[in-house]
Amino acid sequence: MWHATPPPACGWSPPPPGEEGVRVILATTAQHLATVSDTPRLDAELLMAHALGVTRERLLLRHLDDPVPPAFVALIHRRLAHEPVAYIIGTRDFWSITLAVGRGVLIPRPDSETLIEAAVEHFADRAPKTVLDLGTGPGTLLLAALAEWPQAKGLGVDASAASLDFAEHNANVLDMAERASFSQGDWAAGVTGPFDLVLCNPPYVAADETLPAEVRDHEPASALFAGNDGLDDYRIIAAQLPRLIAPGGMAAIEIGYTQAAAVTALLTAQGLTVALRRDLAGRDRCLVATS
């Protein structure tokens, strides 16, 4: 049976007796999560699957008529307090891989898959042999690229020791430890290239920009904010890129949807050729730079 008394401030309480099945509770919980999430049903399903110890797919196929596990209550309380689902369940899917994530690490976003899509298109006729991921976080872009090209090797760089701990763990879990190495550093300072593929998702939020509570209050500010105009890190990276891109190679750089012109100017000033790619929502998301 499912018995719990949530804090009154959360505005949510357990169901009455007789309505404790997973199917019903997913629907009612999603209604409440709509106050804090743009994807309330998905959040409810992911948290329920985590509480049951099964995948979301298995939950929907096999467990909709199960009783709700007691652990689900605490998970919902955390989500109603704006804690990101990825931190609650400890993982996030990205491209073809699942990554462990936690506090102190930037959560991978689907929009960032635009960078991998750009690389797949560029290397349609040949595979990159070497990959560099600047600001790797939990290994997001590097490990996605290595999963796409099993013969490639790569380096992930990040200033955060906590992020690199997650990245190394993820490389081990994904059986990529022999192909992925990691280094703590300030962008590409001290990195010797060139690389066939350079990937980078730097901080690009302006200091005065308003962010959702689940981002602002939980994810690391150092991975989000980049000075008054959001361009501080692009200025550093742009100057480093020409020596990092191998002949015939490319760099894919994530941008905020209003930053295409400004970042393009920084890259072209370094002699690079730049093309824009949009994400699935049609927003400017990725700049592809070639020598």
Automatic annotation (TrEMBL):
Catalyses which reaction(s): L-glutaminyl-[peptide chain release factor] + S-adenosyl-L-methionine = N(5)-methyl-L-glutaminyl-[peptide chain release factor] + S-adenosyl-L-homocysteine + H(+)
Ligand binding (S-adenosyl-L-methionine): 135-139, 158, 187, 201
Domain Release factor glutamine methyltransferase N-terminal intervals: 26-90
Keyword tags: Methyltransferase, S-adenosyl-L-methionine, Transferase
Gene3D superfamilies attached to this UniProt entry: DNA helicase RuvA subunit, C-terminal domain (1.10.8.10), Vaccinia Virus protein VP39 (3.40.50.150)
Domain Methyltransferase small: 120-210
Binding site for substrate: 201-204
UniProt xrefs under CDD domains: AdoMet_MTases
GO BP annotation list: methylation
Keyword Methyltransferase annotated: yes
Keyword ATP-binding: no
Annotated GO MF terms: nucleic acid binding; peptide chain release factor N(5)-glutamine methyltransferase activity
Enzyme Commission code: 2.1.1.297
InterPro entries listed in its UniProt record: DNA_methylase_N6_adenine_CS (IPR002052), HemK-like (IPR004556), N5-glutamine_MTase (IPR050320), PrmC_N (IPR040758), RF_methyltr_PrmC (IPR019874), SAM-dependent_MTases_sf (IPR029063), Small_mtfrase_dom (IPR007848)
Role description: Methylates the class 1 translation termination release factors RF1/PrfA and RF2/PrfB on the glutamine residue of the universally conserved GGQ motif.
HAMAP family in the record: RF_methyltr_PrmC
Family: Belongs to the protein N5-glutamine methyltransferase family. PrmC subfamily.
PANTHER family, A to Z: HEMK METHYLTRANSFERASE (PTHR18895), MTRF1L RELEASE FACTOR GLUTAMINE METHYLTRANSFERASE (PTHR18895:SF74)
Protein name: Release factor glutamine methyltransferase
